[in-house]
Amino acid sequence: MDIFLQNLADILDIDVKGLTTNTYLSDIEEWDSLSVISFVAMADIKYERKLNAPEVRKAQTVQELFDLVHGA
């Protein structure tokens, strides 16, 4: 989970200390349409997981993003 949080923080250009699995994406000012596309690309490159923007946009929390990437 720590590596995932760091990868997400890198995409958002924020401090990883501000992220937990319970963090709501709507509470992250930097979470926008560009971040969604960056997340899709990161999932493909780092986790070999093919996602699309609509399914990523449905996620409400960091945990839900993690579940998407790890197929939970």
Rg, please?
11 Å
CATH topology description: Non-ribosomal Peptide Synthetase Peptidyl Carrier Protein, Chain A
In DSSP terms (H or I, runs of 4 or more residues), the helix count works out at 4
Number of strands: 0
What is the architecture at the second tier of CATH? Orthogonal Bundle
Summarize the helix and strand pattern as letters.
Answer: HHHH
Strand content: under 5%
- Unreliable runs: none
Number of domains: 1
At the first level of CATH, the class is Mainly Alpha
Distance between the termini: 13 Å
Q: Major sheet, described briefly?
A: none
Q: Looking at this structure, what is the CATH superfamily?
A: ACP-like
Helix content: 55-70%
Q: Specify the structural class.
A: mainly alpha
Shape: globular
State mean pLDDT (0 to 100 scale).
Answer: 96
List the defining traits of the structure above.
Non-ribosomal Peptide Synthetase Peptidyl Carrier Protein, Chain A; Acyl carrier protein; mainly alpha; ACP-like_sf; globular; single chain; 4 helices; 72 residues; 0% strand
Could you explain the architecture of this structure?
With 72 residues, the protein is mainly alpha-helical. The chain has a single domain (2-70), classed as ACP-like (Non-ribosomal Peptide Synthetase Peptidyl Carrier Protein, Chain A, Orthogonal Bundle). The chain has helices at residues 2-12, 33-47, 53-58, 62-70. Helix 1 (2-12) crosses helix 2. The longest helix has 15 residues, at 33-47. The radius of gyration is 11 Å and the shape is globular. It starts with a helix and ends with a helix. InterPro entries: ACP-like_sf. This is Acyl carrier protein.
